[in-house]
Amino acid sequence: MSDPESAILSALSAEEGSTIADTYAFAASHNFDHNQVVGVSKSLEGDAYVTLKELSTQFFVLQKEANDISTNGSQEVRVLNALVKAGDAGLSIPALQQEVGKDISKIGMGNCLKNKWAKKDKASGNLIAVVSEAKDDVREQLAALQAANGDPKALDDKAVQALKRRKLISLVTRKSYTVSRGPDYKPKRVKKAADLTKEMLDSGSYKTTTFKEYNFQTLGESVGGGYLHPLLKVRAEFRKILMQMGFDEMPTSKWVESSFWNFDSLFQPQSHPARDAHDTFFIKEPAATVSVPEDYYERVKTMHESGGSGSIGYRYDFKREEAFKNLLRTHTTAISSQMLYKLANQEGGFQPARYFSIDRVFRNETMDATHLCEFHQVEGLVADYDLSLGDLIGTIETFFKKIGITKLRFKPAFNPYTEPSMEIFGYHPDLKKWTEIGNSGMFRPEMLAPMGLPENVRVIAWGLSLERPTMIKYRIDNIRNLFGHKVDLAMTRNAPICRFEGGEEEEKQQQ
Hints:
- The protein has 511 residues and is an alpha+beta fold.
- 36% of the residues lie in helices and 20% in strands.
- The chain has 20 helices and 14 strands.
- The chain has helices at residues 4-12, 23-29, 34-46, 64-72, 75-86, 93-100, 102-114, 137-147, 157-165, 198-203, 230-244, 259-262, 294-306, 320-323, 333-344, 389-402, 445-448, 467-473, 489-494, 501-510, and strands at 19-20, 50-62, 118-120, 127-129, 169-181, 248-249, 256-258, 326-328, 353-362, 374-385, 408-415, 418-428, 433-443, 457-465.
- The strands form four sheets. A seven-stranded mixed beta sheet has the order 6-9-10-14-13-12-11, with helices on both faces.
- The chain is elongated and about 125 Å long.
């Protein structure tokens, strides 16, 4: 058996005006699937081998009930036959249902009474036949339709409507085509090349190759716009809130920092466990920074070795090579220390300031559902005269209230560069428990004094991750589904806009 394409082209090759009158009949005669024949015909039309003219054929098909009537007769005739068989006494409705079936009895009884083939005896309630036989018009009409292959012209309109009302037949429209020779007809199709390849240029075959026409009007695939990641949506909302609170954003575009700014300037000893390779990513090339402010370096070194501002220091030999090691910053506080140093040494002297940053930090941690080797840290600090722990708590409460967290608790904690230090806990309404959401404290004098800040200047600071509130906001239970190579792009595309209602309610109250 040949394929549909060969069969179509062969049928058209007989003479100049050859046509295929109907693809449906053609497919049936060659034992092809009609949809396959139509698909091949449209493909040939695309290469101008054939032209197509659409045909629309309507015909009736018999439903399941109609097929049963064609075999066994209509319900009304079968009921009449049962009544005639029962004689003058007739049949009760239960007896009739037992004789012909409940469904047949229901339809046939009504039609028998309507056609006056039967009557209901008032005394007994039985159905009694009035005529001994009747012509089965419904069966004959269905047989006529079958003989005419469902042609609607086989019956008059009245008969068709009656059959349709009884839902015995349904009208079907079949699409097919008349196939004729096209302007580029050939008995066998030669595939046109879609692309000019290097091999064609090398061999010179492009000179004799037939190419598809280039459609200059066609549109390319639509390019979808970019979508903000949920982290960026929450970041934008946090950034707006902090700016509303009067904070300025710190420049945090440097991911690589020296150990001096990341650890030493924060009065964190060079023997601290966080400075080990199993906690921090150190840079191999370049392994060391070029320079740091020398006068400031010496003051930091002195503070570590012998102390100052009421402190005895750590009493160890401060090593320059350790301070100059490059690393991926472990916190954005490395930027905070540089900003405070510039604030202390700017022209005109110290001026009170509020700074914040939201950027990426890196730690050599074991990855699990709640931890990655990199995450985003939100940090805020206020530098002013005579600040207290009450100022820190009030600032933290204001920020968290604006993001909708009103129930806060503070727990004493230890940080190398803040004293006092506090962990921040918030009540999680979904989990119905208190959960840690941040850390805070007041920068130690041993950190601030070497910078050159006035003695009565205090710096309060707090920080939290960006991932945890984002996971809570978007109901994500695994951080790897939020950040990293396993993130579902559809989630990014469909994530709703981030809005924190707490800040809006406070603004309305103020207005």
